[in-house]
Design goal:
Blueprint lengths: L1 H23 L6 E2 L4 E2 L1 H7 L21 H12 L10 E9 L3 E5 L6 E4 L14 E8 L7 E4 H19 L2 E10 L2 E6 L2 E6 L18 E10 L4 E5 L1 H17 L6 E9 L3 E5 L4 E5 L20 E10 L4 E5 L20 E9 L3 E7 L2 E6 L21 E10 L4 E5 L11 H4 L5 E9 L3 E7 L2 E6 L21 E10 L4 E5 L8 H7 L5 E9 L3 E5 L5 E5 L16 E10 L4 E5 L1 H38 L6 H20 L1
Parallel strand pairs: 5-7, 15-17, 20-22, 25-27
Antiparallel strand pairs: 1-2, 3-4, 3-6, 4-5, 6-7, 8-9, 8-11, 9-10, 11-12, 13-14, 13-16, 14-15, 16-17, 18-19, 18-21, 19-20, 21-22, 23-24, 23-26, 24-25, 26-27, 28-29, 28-31, 29-30, 31-32
Helix pairs in contact: 8-9
Length: 644
């Protein structure tokens, strides 16, 4: 009864509290609810009042005639009707109801879960009773609601399937959603993967859009777990299939076998042909008997052609193919009237350093060597004479049908100018020639077309020292020349330019005599000396030790001074001069004159002493003291003169 008393006390206290509040309310004051305003009296009347016969100790008795064992049994049965769920796990749920906003799922928990209908767009046929896997985001939020997600469940299941496919090298299906830079975007069970353009097919793909909207098979080649990136490949599936086909195809190959193939790729060096699972290379030289600059001149992508197997490698699975071998060699069609000495016409197809190739008919070419292009011996570069595409006539010089070789000549179409050279260009005759080429030792000139000659560097000038012909002339200049030597058999013509004038060194020999002094200007200073410009356009050389001036310094560039000729060589055209020799000789002459003057003074003193001695011998004895004194004086002067 203690509990009953406690309850009655609480009820009385609550009633008193409400009455106190009611006493403070005015007549118009009320408490508003959602529907109506009720008075304090209504609230009082709604309070439950305890009944007299309520048993407040019923919880301490065996209620409902259940013993402890039955109570435990029923509690376990009740607890077993609920599932224990954990945040982050994926569980199955039964669709209970569907409305425009949510799908209600029974997951066996104390409350149902709601999932947005937007997560079921891929299942338009969803109905009540269907089982769906969902992800538990939270067993209970702030409002006590169970939070589920079908999208996250699908994503996690997809990641598990993708990882399992990578680990076990399994094939998975995917839907190509769209094109992106460098490849395609593929939907694999709700996860977006990247399909690079190079992994779409074994052949280069030029239009990616044709794959958009298709469902294809793929293999997972890479997964970045940090960024949730997946890379897939369709090409590896094709390669796997082709590998087995390659083995079968290569095992049946034979040299000379003709196969049909498709042009798969075109490069500068050849064409790759798809033979139905295995590729072969058709080299550019095996496409046509004639010369071509690029395979695309003959073939195009995706073109079907017949090719012949030239060679193959079982281990490396390399196959060499030929196209031109399916047609007869053009040399077999070369007419019999073409013989040595025949005139032929064609087009220049190649120009090299050693000559040019003339194509007479497609696949038949002849070499025009550089020496057969012109009678001129000065022609060194065929590109100066011919260029690709020129249509010319030539003469057949040699012909070997078995070896399929032919040499041609162009100069043979005109007469040999050297047959008349002796009459037209005798030794001593004077002509004008054009500078064609220069070397370290001379200048090559052309007197007329086909007649070349050489002017040696030593025959360019009488007076000027030339280190290289380009100091004297340049290509294209016209020079007056005289024929010095003529060798018709060896086609050699020696010419001179300086010989058109008299040798000035005959005159220089009389002007620049030894020890003569001339004014000169320093043109260039070197380690060994300097070059001096002397009168009449002549150059001389002054050695370093002869460049010293009287004050100890040396002559400098562009300085003008007097120089003495110390060497003149007419044959070698060499003049050696000295500046130091001028003042050194003047100084030496002054020293010599001073030395001669002193010698004369000493000689006069000796003569005087001798005269005194002679007079002393003739003197008397009385004069001996005086003479002795005079003798001593003279001897002192004589000794002094000798010392001086």
């Amino acid at each position: 009864m203690a509990k009953k008393q406690v309850a009655e006390k609480e009820l009385a206290a609550k009633t008193a509290e409400l009455q106190g509040e009611g006493g403070r309310l005015t007549e118009k004051e009320t408490i508003e609810s959602e529907a109506d305003s009720v008075s304090i009296e209504s609230i009082k009347s709604s309070l439950a009042t305890p009944t007299e016969d309520f048993d407040w100790d019923a919880d301490e008795k065996v209620f409902g005639n259940y013993n402890d064992a039955d109570r435990k049994k029923f509690e376990d049965m009740y607890a077993g009707t609920f599932n224990q769920i954990t945040k982050g796990e994926i569980i199955p749920g039964i669709v209970v109801s569907i409305n425009n906003k949510d799908v209600v799922l029974n997951v066996g928990f104390k409350s149902d879960g709601l999932v947005s209908t937007s997560e079921f767009r891929d299942t338009p046929d969803l109905k009540v009773g269907d089982s769906v896997d969902v992800f538990v985001e939270a067993p209970e939020d702030a409002n006590g609601q169970l939070i589920l997600s079908r999208k996250r469940a699908k994503t996690q299941r997809s990641w598990e399937a993708i990882n399992e496919a990578l680990e076990n090298d399994r094939i998975i299906n995917g839907f190509v959603k769209s094109r992106t830079k460098g490849g395609l975007i593929v939907d694999i069970m709700g996860v977006e993967a990247f399909l690079p353009g190079s992994q779409i097919d074994i052949k280069p793909i030029r239009d990616y859009d044709i794959y958009v909207g298709k469902t294809m098979e793929f293999k997972v080649v890479k997964i970045n777990h940090e960024f949730k990136n997946v890379v897939v490949s369709h090409k590896v599936l094709i390669e796997d299939d082709l590998e087995s086909q390659k083995v079968e195809i290569v095992s049946k190959l034979e040299k000379g076998q003709v196969l049909e193939g498709t042009v798969k790729n075109i490069t500068d060096f050849g064409v790759f042909i798809d033979l139905g699972g295995v590729d072969g290379l058709l080299h550019i030289t095996d496409i046509s008997w004639g010369r071509i600059e690029h395979p695309k001149e003959v073939l195009s992508l995706d073109e079907k052609i017949n090719v012949v197997v030239l060679d193959f490698d079982d281990e490396k699975k390399r196959i060499a193919l030929g196209l031109k071998q399916l047609t007869p060699h053009p040399w077999e069609n070369l007419t019999a009237d073409i013989q040595v000495g025949s005139k032929v016409k064609g087009k220049i197809v190649t120009v090299a350093d050693y000559g040019a190739f003339l194509e007479i008919i497609p696949g038949v070419e002849g070499l025009i060597h550089v020496s057969e292009m012109s009678w001129s011996q000065n022609l060194r570069n065929p590109q100066e004479f011919l260029k690709v595409g020129d249509e010319i006539e030539a003469e057949v010089l040699t012909l070997d049908r078995d070896e399929r070789k032919m040499s041609l000549g162009i100069k043979q179409l005109s007469s040999d100018p050297w047959q008349e050279v002796a009459a037209k260009f005798p030794v001593g005759s004077k002509h004008q020639a054009t500078v064609k080429n220069m070397t370290n030792f001379g200048v090559f000139v052309e007197i007329e077309e086909g007649i070349d000659g050489l002017i040696h560097i030593s025959d360019l000038s009488w007076s000027k020292k030339i280190n290289h012909p380009n100091e004297f002339t340049k290509v294209g200049d016209v020079l007056d020349v005289v024929v010095l030597e003529l060798d018709v058999d060896n086609r050699k013509l020696s010419l001179g330019h300086k010989q058109l004038e008299e040798n000035p060194w005959d005159t220089f020999e009389t002007i620049f005599t030894l020890d003569s002094v001339h004014q000169g200007t320093v043109v260039k200073v070197t380690d060994k000396g300097a070059v001096i410009a002397l009168p009449y356009g002549v150059e001389g050389f002054v050695p370093t030790k002869h460049m010293v001036k009287e004050d100890g310094t040396s002559v400098k560039a562009e300085e003008t001074n007097d120089f003495k000729i110390i060497e003149f060589n007419k044959e070698a055209k060499r003049i050696v001069v000295s500046h130091a020799r001028i003042w050194e000789e003047v100084k030496a002459e002054a020293v010599a004159e001073e030395r001669n003057a002193k010698k004369k003074e000493a000689k006069a003193a000796v003569t005087a002493v001798k005269k005194v001695k002679d007079s002393v011998e003739k003197s008397t004895l009385g004069d001996l003291d005086v003479l002795a004194q005079l003798k001593s004086q003279l001897e002192g002067e004589e000794s002094k003169a000798k010392k001086g």
